[in-house]
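#structure-requests
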Amino acid sequence: MYALRLSTDHAMTTRAHRAAMFTLYQLTILLGILLMPIALLTRQAGVSFPIHRVIGRMEAAYERTQP
């Protein structure tokens, strides 16, 4: 019975972690969309705005949580 409880607790923690990573990934995409006009303006000024790196890292982190 105790081993079953540990397994259930671990599964719940894994689901919570996966849900948190999905939420962070979606918020990062939203941030990228909202910052796109600013990124376009700064690019015209010669300054790079590396939001694609952040989105790529969050995507990789979310994919690592998949079974």
